[in-house]
Amino acid sequence: MPGCYAVFHKQLGDLVLLEPALSRLRDHHGAPVGLMTRNGHADLARLMAGVEVVRGLPLAPAAALYCFDPLPKSSLRSLLAPALKRHLIPPERRELHWFHPFLFPRPSNSELGDSYIAEFFWKNTPVPSDLPFRPPVLTRPPRDWAPEGWEPGKYVLVNATSGWKNKMWTVAGWTALLEPLDCPCVLTSAGAVWQKEHCERIAAATGSALLPTTTRQFLWLCANARAVLTVDGAASHLAAAFSVPCFTLFGPSSMDHWHRPAPGHVAFQAPPDTDGVRRLKKLPPEPVVEAVRQFFSQAGVFSGALL
């Protein structure tokens, strides 16, 4: 029987940022936290202490349910779950639909503002806690999740695409950054045609290995890389949760929301254009190469990595 239910159907990286709130629920209600989420996220949930994925229709009663997104699917699953109380914690109230007050009598009134999303969810989870906020933490994936032929600490993981095209950096930029690296690079890509084509061009220009991966393999690669170079997305959040040195490129998205500065976890944002919009496609390689050189040196990734 679950200690409570949690509902969340957003993307993989978003779920990583929910981990501190799920930990708070576990400490208050007891394990397991019954998590209703996307089917493809079950392997990530396995790396969260005290969390158990609920598939299909939940049957076991629980004292409370906590929904962390306003998506219709999440609302429907919340309605069908046998919970005595239901709570909705949306980051922004403008995302609410007309039906939400009928399912959740008192949705959270808090707004995200400039908060780091993981801290927002943790802070607004309505159960008591004697502990201060801590960033997301994941257990390490088992060795049998590794892609064949790859060993821990022997590569740099490069994740050059995200779910949005405006988060992509140029092929020329990645080429200038990766060509001098004195270490094998593994490129990972999601499944959309434009994502694959972008990574294929980078791989062809740099000689990096482009590796199609399952979710398990992607998680293992993030956890065991010597360092991660990525655009804003899941790889950045995973690297931080695995304590792997990570350098993240930001375009128009908010660094306040999606990045928490920490030793070995560095972000670099494109400067604003004349219209105030930050565009990675206009970011030249030279400042990024220098910033990554300093990042490698300060994080102790390897000396002489950039020649």
Commentary on this structure:
By secondary structure, the protein is an alpha/beta fold. It has two domains: 121 residues, Glycogen Phosphorylase B (Rossmann fold); 148 residues, Rossmann fold, CATH 3.40.50. Helices cover 34% and strands 16% of the residues. Strands 8-7-6-9-10-11 form a six-stranded parallel β-sheet, sandwiched between helices. Strand 1, helix 1 and strand 2 form a beta-alpha-beta unit. The longest helix has 18 residues. It is globular and about 60 Å long.
Present the secondary structure layout.
Elements: E1 4-7, H1 12-29, E2 33-36, H2 42-46, E3 51-53, E4 62-67, H3 72-80, E5 83-88, H4 100-103, H5 117-124, E6 156-159, H6 171-178, E7 185-188, H7 193-206, E8 209-210, H8 215-224, E9 227-231, H9 234-241, E10 246-250, H10 255-258, E11 265-269, H11 285-299
Parallel strand pairs: 1-2, 1-4, 2-3, 4-5, 6-7, 6-9, 7-8, 9-10, 10-11
Summary, kept brief:
With 307 residues, the protein is α/β, with parallel strands linked by helices.
Quick tags:
single chain, 307 residues, alpha/beta, Rossmann fold, 2 domains, six-stranded parallel beta sheet, 11 helices, 16% strand
CATH architectural arrangement of the largest domain: 3-Layer(aba) Sandwich
> Share of helix among residues?
25-40%
Total number of beta strands: 11
CATH class of the largest domain: Alpha Beta
Q: What's the number of structural domains? A: 2
